[in-house]
Amino acid sequence: MKLSAFALLLPYLLVIPATAQTCGPVIDIGGTCDLAALTTALESTSCTIEQLFPQQDAESIAATVAGLCEYDAPVQYVEIQGTFQDDHRYFDGGGDVADGEYGFEMDTARLNRFIKNSMGDSLISWPEYEQKEEYNAANDYGANGYMTNFNIDRNAEKGSCQMNTVMCCFTDSVKDDLVDNTDVCHYDLASSPQSNHVNAGWSVFTEDESAHCVGFTWKEGEASDIYKGNALFYASMYQTATKGYTSNVPGAPMCACMEQMPVVTEAACVSATGSDLNYKFIVDRDSGEVSATHSVTMTYEDCGTDLNTRVKEVHRGTSIATAIDEYLVGSNNCDEVNADYLNDEQLLVTSATTRFTNIDGAVEEGITWKQVFGKGIFFLPPHLDAARADEEMRTLMEACVEPLGRQCMLLRKCPSCTSEVHRNIVYQRLTPFPAFQEGISTADTVDIPNLFMNQWRENNNVMHVDYELYTSVSDALAKTGEWQAPDYNNNNNNYGFPRNSGPIVHIGNQWNSYKWGGGTAHEHGFFVELSTFVIILPYLLVTPAVAHLRHQQRQLQECEGSNPETCGCDVVLQDDYRGTISSTEDGYTCMNWESQSPHSHSRTAANYPDKGLGDHNYCRNPDGEPRGAWCYTTDPSKRWSFCNVPSCTPSTTTTTTSTTTTTTASTGASTTTSTQLPTCNTPELNDLDELDLRTVLKGANSNCETALSKKKVLMIGIDGLRADVVGMTPLPNIARLKRLGTHSFWANVQSTAAAVSGPGWASMFTGVEPSKHLVDGNGDLRDLASPTVFKTVKDAFDLKIAASVSWHPLVNDFINHEDDTTLDASFLAFSDSAMAAKAREWLLSEEFDFVFVDFDGADAAGHSLGFDGYLASYQNRVVEIDSLVGTLLDAVMETSAEEEWLIVLTSDHGGEGTSHSAYDNYNRKIPFIVASNSPRVDVGFMPLADPGSQMDVLPTIMYFLGGESAIPDDLDGQVFGFKDYTRAPPPSPPGACIPDANNCGCASEKQADYRGNISVTASGKTCQAWSSQSPHSHSRTSANYPDSGLEANYCRNPDGESGAWCYTEDPFSRWELCEVPTCDTA
Prior knowledge:
single chain; alpha+beta; 8-stranded mixed sheet; 35 strands
């Protein structure tokens, strides 16, 4: 129990009235002040404890003695400066000492007097104040008077000194220069709301600012506990008075228990120790009043080590020794610690190196990223000096030229973007950036950060000439799937990257801006690829090598019995394959793994020692590609591709619908008869919202079969659904489908008729072009000359088929006109909701094997007011349809136990304005999704080079139901999205170049593909060798442009000129175009 509040304010003496005149005048009780020590000391006198404190019972006497020992014997901290407010303001970084009106010497005079006269022989109490008692009791800080900075009450709900450690951090000095002994990393503002008056927030310190931190620690019950008040004075007010140290880290207290202080790299350590400590009780002979005092000799010194080490020594074996590393993190560790803090605590990232996985889930081994700036959850401003910000970013992006032969990639991550293809965009620079000039890019200058942040301009930034955009890192590395629809901010508006650029057509509102609101990229970060191949795996409890070895051993045990010389085990993604196949599935010859030409890379035997690499060109999978073995190719235009390595599985006895067979993986043999394939291990389609089949299907054996009686098909057609609108609009149910299979937002409609419903639906139903099925418009639907998918399925498998449609001609003029016995049920709805309700009823009944539904609302909205994702009328209809799609998926979930489902979603055409017949991407690009719980269906998206088409519907459904033999001949479509089917290369579109690199150059490539030996210009001048710097010095070398064929003195186009060219041997004519033939077109 503590004494009444008035006792705390007495300068040195606490008096207690007494009537006993036989006690005293001085009672020496030794080095311990408590009731037991006092009672023992009285035994050698004629005074008893009851005589010393007459008229008090035993409990009161105990409380009185405790109060005298705690508050009277030592010097109260409040006595040093004089008031609670002075102490409170000082420890928070202010007060008269920091900003007083009389000057530093005057304002610290009282401190200096105490240092001179009392510091060396005074025991100083822990700071406790009358003014805090009521507040602390009412606000869960305990029954005490402790300042919030130093609340050591372990019984208090909001006690703040569990680590028994205090630190002061100063950032300025009014005397000599501040001794900078640490780096400040970050600070959680919620740690000290009583100091900064902020409930929540954070600060990250990315610049090196001067700070001096010093602290001390104590252990309860030991000498350091007795003298902790002295140590506090020495670490704080002594440093201020003698060295001039003032000012707190912004937002943090200047001195407080460690839990309330900023995270820093290190801190100095001090200690205070006493000797000859002795307590005395003094009795006034006249009044009988009792007081207490003490004597001591104090020593103040440095610990001889840093604070982190000292804490671990004092608290060895306790949680404090471990926890100190969270506050004192070690020299040069701020970047890594800040990254962890913002990632783990604030869900952010900072400029520290961070690993990413690309959009399609494949791990990009060896690639690390450094953030350069960002907004929202990725908040990180660039340097305030624009020239420095540009220099830092320029240096980072150019760092890859020497080791990789290209500039480093720039990645924008944008989780808030509504278009999925904009959530991860890779910018690959092709040409050197021009010189820096702050502000908007000109013909000769650029401000690189501003180009991406606010002013996405075409100057020195032309797609296919100066840069390419990709939807994933793997596409960028493979140089495939380049975006085709650039857009720029060629006025003074503040539209940043990438304006309305899109893969096929413009997609709006995905741009970022650091000056304007608007756009959906309000949560994004820009990251530059680092040229060093550092793999950061902080989460491993064992070393990466040991972890990899254990993982590899476990997986190889599952492959026991396979033959790595002839096949690759699917469980380890063919990591075990050691055969001699040396060509890719699309016919390219593999490049030697030890070679760096024509493609530089890091997949070498030195970097991947246990992966079967070496001085050969055999297919391998050193880095865990999900589809298995692969290789770099010898073709400069094709970086890498997968190989057609057979899959082998462990010895397994499998049961099929017709026979029981045993397949032995060790033989490497494979069979083609479907009844001899193992049964697919199909996961239940029980939660489309949560189930992500990437983890289930990657590496799963796709060489399997499921009984026809277990297979079901849901085909969803959405009339007039424009591809880019699906990409830019939040559609949660279509997103559910995407997670379950392969999707394309840039699939093609048929190519020989206008983009109208008749030929679109006919090609979807029949798998052939209008030139074959003979439906060219909406007026000749009954001319359909090819069998529909419904008739084909009925004839081949005799399944029960139902169709619920909103556009009635699909049943009346196509399906029933062809054969009115094909459908087992049909429903001609007059609204999308009615159509969906009937289809849902069929799905829940489990009566039908194949259900087709047609939504017409998007097409109606487009014809009414426009096919445009920015129009509420069109977008709202698409959102409504997505909701109805969700009801169908829910029905599938309810009934799909032990079934294998194929769900196909696509459209008949796109649209622009209020029509859809024009020959452009707005009209002729559509979404296409194939979703399934079958391990045969791949997960990801189709490349731009082969985006699929609506004619793929029929062959995909037939392949799912009956394998390759079930697909009719002479189709124009192909199977879409299946891992166990290899698609043929798509035909060249009309007008496409027919390449012949040795003899001509494609106009579409500006002859950049030319690799012939013409070596004179159009005017007859001899070309200068690319390796020569005379008579013209230049930067167009094979080192800077490694994929441009810069050999000998042959005409080439490495940098996007209008055609092939060369430097000349004429000193007065720097360069000229060559007369290289232009290749023919299809």
